Amino acid sequence: MCWSVSTPTVQCTTRRVICPKKKPAATDFVLYDTTGVHELAVDFCGCKGAPERRQQCMRVCWWPATVKEPNTCATFALIKLFQILNCLGKLSAYDFLRGLEMVTNHDGLDRPPVSARHGS
Ligand SMILES: [Zn+2]
Protein backbone atom coordinates (compact mmCIF):
# COMPACT_ATOMS: atom_id res chain seq x y z
CA MET A 1 0.00 0.00 0.00
CA CYS A 2 1.54 3.28 -1.06
CA TRP A 3 -1.21 5.82 -0.28
CA SER A 4 -0.29 8.19 -3.01
CA VAL A 5 -1.95 10.60 -5.37
CA SER A 6 0.04 11.26 -8.48
CA THR A 7 -0.41 13.03 -11.76
CA PRO A 8 1.49 12.58 -14.99
CA THR A 9 2.64 16.18 -14.91
CA VAL A 10 3.03 16.96 -11.21
CA GLN A 11 4.41 14.57 -8.65
CA CYS A 12 1.97 14.97 -5.81
CA THR A 13 2.86 11.86 -3.91
CA THR A 14 3.45 12.23 -0.24
CA ARG A 15 5.83 9.29 -0.19
CA ARG A 16 7.45 9.76 -3.60
CA VAL A 17 6.13 6.40 -4.73
CA ILE A 18 4.14 5.74 -7.88
CA CYS A 19 1.31 3.38 -7.04
CA PRO A 20 1.45 0.09 -8.96
CA LYS A 21 -2.34 -0.22 -8.68
CA LYS A 22 -3.23 3.40 -9.37
CA LYS A 23 -6.79 4.22 -10.36
CA PRO A 24 -7.44 7.33 -12.42
CA ALA A 25 -9.86 9.98 -11.32
CA ALA A 26 -12.41 11.31 -13.74
CA THR A 27 -10.79 12.93 -16.72
CA ASP A 28 -12.18 16.31 -15.71
CA PHE A 29 -10.40 16.65 -12.36
CA VAL A 30 -10.10 20.35 -11.56
CA LEU A 31 -7.63 21.88 -9.11
CA TYR A 32 -8.00 25.44 -7.81
CA ASP A 33 -4.61 26.83 -6.85
CA THR A 34 -2.96 30.19 -6.28
CA THR A 35 -1.53 29.82 -9.80
CA GLY A 36 -5.00 29.48 -11.34
CA VAL A 37 -7.51 26.80 -12.15
CA HIS A 38 -6.05 23.67 -13.70
CA GLU A 39 -7.38 20.50 -15.28
CA LEU A 40 -5.28 17.55 -14.20
CA ALA A 41 -5.06 13.85 -14.80
CA VAL A 42 -4.97 12.45 -11.28
CA ASP A 43 -4.28 8.90 -10.22
CA PHE A 44 -5.36 7.68 -6.82
CA CYS A 45 -3.81 4.82 -4.92
CA GLY A 46 -5.78 1.66 -5.55
CA CYS A 47 -3.90 -0.61 -3.17
CA LYS A 48 -5.75 -2.70 -0.62
CA GLY A 49 -6.29 -0.71 2.55
CA ALA A 50 -5.65 2.64 0.90
CA PRO A 51 -7.41 5.64 2.40
CA GLU A 52 -10.48 7.03 0.73
CA ARG A 53 -9.91 9.42 -2.14
CA ARG A 54 -10.83 12.47 -0.08
CA GLN A 55 -8.17 11.50 2.44
CA GLN A 56 -5.60 10.98 -0.31
CA CYS A 57 -6.38 14.48 -1.58
CA MET A 58 -5.91 16.01 1.85
CA ARG A 59 -2.57 14.25 2.26
CA VAL A 60 -1.25 16.23 -0.68
CA CYS A 61 -2.81 19.44 0.74
CA TRP A 62 -5.81 19.51 -1.58
CA TRP A 63 -9.21 20.22 0.00
CA PRO A 64 -11.86 18.20 -1.86
CA ALA A 65 -15.06 19.92 -2.91
CA THR A 66 -17.04 16.78 -2.24
CA VAL A 67 -16.67 13.97 0.24
CA LYS A 68 -17.42 11.15 -2.18
CA GLU A 69 -15.38 10.71 -5.34
CA PRO A 70 -13.85 14.20 -5.42
CA ASN A 71 -13.21 15.66 -8.85
CA THR A 72 -12.61 19.23 -7.74
CA CYS A 73 -10.16 20.38 -5.10
CA ALA A 74 -8.66 23.61 -3.79
CA THR A 75 -5.12 23.70 -2.49
CA PHE A 76 -4.59 24.57 1.14
CA ALA A 77 -2.46 27.52 0.00
CA LEU A 78 -5.39 28.93 -1.98
CA ILE A 79 -7.76 28.53 0.96
CA LYS A 80 -5.28 30.26 3.26
CA LEU A 81 -4.85 33.10 0.76
CA PHE A 82 -8.61 33.56 0.55
CA GLN A 83 -8.93 33.52 4.33
CA ILE A 84 -6.35 36.30 4.68
CA LEU A 85 -7.77 38.43 1.88
CA ASN A 86 -11.30 37.92 3.16
CA CYS A 87 -10.50 38.71 6.78
CA LEU A 88 -8.10 41.61 6.23
CA GLY A 89 -9.24 42.98 2.90
CA LYS A 90 -12.95 42.11 3.07
CA LEU A 91 -12.63 40.46 -0.33
CA SER A 92 -15.74 38.49 -1.21
CA ALA A 93 -15.62 34.91 -2.48
CA TYR A 94 -17.08 36.11 -5.78
CA ASP A 95 -14.34 38.71 -6.29
CA PHE A 96 -11.68 36.22 -5.23
CA LEU A 97 -12.87 33.71 -7.81
CA ARG A 98 -13.07 36.41 -10.47
CA GLY A 99 -9.45 37.27 -9.70
CA LEU A 100 -8.51 33.61 -9.89
CA GLU A 101 -10.21 33.43 -13.28
CA MET A 102 -8.06 36.32 -14.44
CA VAL A 103 -4.93 34.54 -13.18
CA THR A 104 -5.98 31.48 -15.15
CA ASN A 105 -6.94 33.27 -18.33
CA HIS A 106 -6.24 36.96 -18.38
CA ASP A 107 -8.38 37.87 -21.38
CA GLY A 108 -11.47 36.66 -19.51
CA LEU A 109 -13.00 35.18 -22.64
CA ASP A 110 -12.94 31.56 -21.54
CA ARG A 111 -14.32 30.52 -18.20
CA PRO A 112 -11.97 28.38 -16.12
CA PRO A 113 -12.63 24.66 -16.16
CA VAL A 114 -15.16 23.27 -13.73
CA SER A 115 -15.69 19.63 -13.06
CA ALA A 116 -18.57 18.44 -15.22
CA ARG A 117 -20.10 16.67 -12.25
CA HIS A 118 -20.50 19.83 -10.19
CA GLY A 119 -20.62 22.81 -12.50
CA SER A 120 -22.02 24.03 -15.73
ZN1 LIG B 1 -1.06 2.33 -4.02
Unreliable spans are: 8-13
Round the Cα radius of gyration to an integer and report it.
15 Å
Hetero compounds: zinc ion
Structural class computed from helices and strand pairing: alpha+beta
**Overall average pLDDT:** 81
Counted up, domains total 1
Order of helices and strands: EEEEEHEEHH
Overall outline = globular
Annotation, overall tally of beta strands: 7
CA-CA gap between termini? 36 Å
Task: Give the key terms.
three-stranded antiparallel sheet; four-stranded mixed sheet; single chain; 19% strand; 7 strands; binds zinc ion; 120 residues; alpha+beta; globular
Q: Could you outline the blueprint of secondary structure elements for this entry?
A:
Layout: E1 5-6, E2 23-24, E3 29-33, E4 36-40, E5 43-44, H1 53-59, E6 62-64, E7 72-75, H2 76-89, H3 93-104
Parallel strand pairs: 3-7
Antiparallel strand pairs: 1-5, 2-5, 3-4, 6-7
Would you mind describing this structure in some detail?
- The chain is of the alpha+beta class and 120 residues long.
- It has one domain (5-104).
- The protein has three helices and seven strands.
- The strands form two sheets. Strands 4-3-7-6 form a four-stranded mixed β-sheet. A three-stranded antiparallel β-sheet has the order 1-5-2.
- Strand 6 and strand 7 (72-75) form a beta hairpin.
- It is globular, with a radius of gyration of 15 Å.
- Residues 8-13 have low confidence and may be disordered.
- The chain binds zinc ion (ZN).
- Residues 1-2, 4, 19, 21, 45-47, 50 line the site of zinc ion.
